[in-house]
Amino acid sequence: MTVHSTVNRDREEFRKRAEELVKQMTLVEKVSQMLHGAPAIERLGIPAYNWWNEALHGVARAGTATVFPQAIGMAATFDPELLRKVGDVVSTEGRAKFHAQFAHGDTDIYKGLTFWAPNVNIFRDPRWGRGHETYGEDPYLTSRLGVAYIQGLQGDDPTYLKSAACAKHYAVHSGPEDIRHSFDAIASRKDMYETYLPAFKACVQEADVESVMGSYNRVNGEAACASETLLHKILREDWGFVGHVVSDCWAIRDIFGGHGLTDNPVDAVALAIRNGCDLNCGSCYGHAVDAVIQDKLSEERIDEAVTRLFTTRMLLGLFDDAEKVPFSNIPYLVNDSAEHAAFNREVARKIPVLLKNDGTLPLKPDTLKTIGVIGPNANNRMALEGNYEGTASRYYTVSEGIQDYTDAHGIRVLLSEGCHLFKDRTSNIAKASDRLSEVQMVCEASDVIVAVFGLDPGLEGEEGDQGNQFASGDKPNILFPGLQRDVLETIYSYNKPVVLLMLSGSALAMDRDDEKASAIMQCWYPGAMGGKAIADLLFGEASPQGKLPLSFYSEEYELPAFTDYSMTNRTYRFTSDKIVYPFGFGLTYSSFTAAPAVLDTDTITADGIRLRVSAKNTGTVAAAETLQAYVQAPELGTPQPQLQAFCKCPLGPGETAEYELFLPESAFSVINEEGETVYPQGTYRIYVGFSQPDLRSVALMGKAPQEIQVKRGI
Predict the structure, then answer these.
(1) Does any domain span residue 424?
(2) Which of 409, 626, 346, 654 is closest to 539 using CA atoms?
């Protein structure tokens, strides 16, 4: 096992202190500390602590904080260093809020320093409602961004954690939401080790993530939160994980109530704790006392779990004097600061993906008198936020951002909701299509139309989310909901320039829009500053630079069964069928070229291969491209070319710079049917450029990546 942890903290000293503290507790006291709402033990000087806090894209559910773009949007930046900086800001605000709240005696839920983020599940199916919490469909991209975000959250102090991150939901978890409490995800060993596990492994071994959360479902017959295979064999024995494991919320109850693996809660609790689940989000672990009394669980295993939990709290500095902990003096005033708002706007500028542009963008204010802004997401605050969100002190919707920008240029903005997001009318007592005539009036009077459509977290999210049209949180298909398609066709019928802005956390079918729109930009859920950032891009104050972290399929594509966890015909790695916009694709307002890559060797060894590439911005505006390297071993039964390295290339007009991409030996490995990593001899292909090497990407980009052959052992 090779461990690449970035910070070598002295856990052993904290663990020894935790062991001494645990020795002084009664069984009942120890069990009480294994619940997410851990009570105070006054006789030992232990304050109450609630483990449940969220920070997917900002400190969530605890009042005012900076609301960054949703995770899937940040994935589109292909920029690990940006994710690290976001994580650092989030943990700074988390610390500021924690110490201020604690000073006022507030130890409620969402007030701690244990953040249950990031979500590094693989977004294998576009119907999954929680896909926008993830970093997309590719395990390599997910691992790079997950590691970076964890590093930002946990900090680089050699002694203390800034906050404690959590890699979730371990493992093989991506819907369907409505059966997650009873569903058994069946995955081959090849798919496990090739797709579902790599990001978690990277979070453990490279980022030294402090916590891992089990998922609700079973995995190959075992409840994920009580799986000897996942929690003991793989996580601790194979990967060397030393932190603590937490259940998803009330997932322990599912062991007997949903999965039927035990007959009662006592046996369920014993099974979960024996196999390595230390902390219960929920209340079932109260039965652990009975499990010990009935000899179904050893008290030594309880001791180990509680020791791990107090080790985490001590690493956070919660049992040390404030002057010893470098994060204790972060003032509350840094929370939601002007500096953080400016950074948030910068992040929001980097997430949109320009999918089509016939030259309409950027808009030129001096040529426009009237802009029509139409669509249910034009002024929809929910479509800024995503889920697991905080509360911003100020929001800028798309229409507000456009109006704020155009006010200075004397441009009239005409606004229409167009239609409800998913219903057939905007007013319950009106007739269907009650905004269609207004759409027509706006189209008639406008020089250019900005159409703002898509979804919001009320349509895609977690099971039980309020307002979800489909109840479970998942989508039934990838079509536009409600009357959106009809309204878009009406807009296109006026033969005026149409800029389609898509606000959604997942892929929708845009076959017809690709034919009819003048420009298309996928804007995700762009955060509280989203409207400002989108206006910046529309009017050329910045160039789009995002790349798709998932495939956008045609409406003709027949998705595999949602419950089928085989990767066959899923994602860009295993299908190229009927993809409208491929993974890794995205345009800018400029043009770039890449000189032929220079390799330090054409033979694969344990030292890997380094590629030096000279990139040039051949256009007239400053922009950033993403240099990407894909690897395939076509003779050896590997997937289609898959991402193995990438870097951002921010260049001014006419500027040239040299970049280095490193492909470790593991980039040229193969996962066999037994899930083993092997290094077969043969010829491998490397593709280097600004997109995938697939035919659709080449057609959209107008150029193909460079192809290079390298060999191992022949």
Answers:
(1) yes
(2) 409
Sequential DSSP letters for 442-479: HHHH-SEEEEEEE--TTTSSSTT-TT-TTSSSS-SSSS
Three-class SS state of 194: helix
> Residue 218: beta bridge partners?
184, 223
Q: Is the distance from CB of 669 to CB of 608 less than 8 angstroms?
A: no
Alpha-carbon span 46 to 33, nearest angstrom: 10
Does pLDDT of 1 surpass 90? no
**Eight-state DSSP code of residue 286:** G
Q: What torsion do the CA atoms of 647, 91, 118, 525 make, to the nearest 10 degrees? A: -80
| 185 and 303, same domain (yes or no) | yes
Distance separating alpha carbons of residues 408 and 334, to the nearest angstrom: 31
Q: Is residue 624 part of a domain?
A: yes
**What does each C-alpha distance from 468 to 43, 129, 268, 484, 501 come to in angstroms?**
47, 10, 32, 17, 22
Structural domain ending residue among the three candidates 316, 334, 352: 334
Token reading at 624: 């950033």
Do 470 and 459 touch, CB atoms closer than 8 A? yes
Same domain, 283 and 372: no
Three-state DSSP class for residue 625: strand
Please tell me whether the overall predicted TM-score, pTM, comes out greater than 0.70 for this model: yes
Q: Kindly state whether residues 493 and 631 are assigned to the same domain.
A: no
Residue type, 434: D
Which residues touch 453 (CB under 8 Å, ≥6 apart)?
375, 376, 377, 418, 480, 484, 487, 488, 500, 501, 502, 503
Looking at the structure, do residues 21 and 91 belong to the same domain, yes or no?
A: yes
Domain boundary among 305, 334, 363: 334
Q: Which residues of 358-369 are buried (b: 16+ CB within 10 A; e: fewer)?
A: eebbbbeeeebe
355 and 413 share one domain: yes
Does the residue 1 lie in any domain?
A: no
Contact partners, residue 97, CB within 8 Å, separation at least 6 = 59, 62, 63, 65, 111, 332, 335
CA dihedral (678, 680, 685, 691) in degrees, to 10, reads -10
Helix (H, G, I), strand (E, B) or coil at 363: coil
> 3-class DSSP state for residue 484?
helix
Read off the pLDDT of residues 496-545 as tens digits, 9 standing for 90 and up. Answer: 999 999 999 999 999 999 999 999 999 999 999 999 999 999 999 999 99
Residues 395-441: tens digit of each pLDDT:
999 999 999 999 999 999 999 999 999 999 999 999 999 999 999 99
CB 375 within 8 A of CB 414: no
The DSSP 8-state label assigned to residue 480 in this structure reads: P
Catalytic residue among 248, 267, 456, 694: 248
Identify the DSSP state of 273: H
Residue 654's CATH number: 2.60.40.10
Q: What is the pLDDT of residues 21-61, one digit of tens each?
A: 999 999 999 999 999 999 999 999 999 999 999 999 999 99
CA angle at 17 for the pair 14 and 22, rounded to the nearest 5°: 125
Concerning whether 248 is annotated as a catalytic residue, the answer is yes
CATH of the domain at 320: 3.20.20.300
Q: Quick check: helix, strand or coil at residue 604?
A: coil
Query: Could you give the residue ranges of the DSSP H alpha helices within 567-701?
Result: 571-574, 695-701
Cα gap 580→558, rounded to integer Å:
14
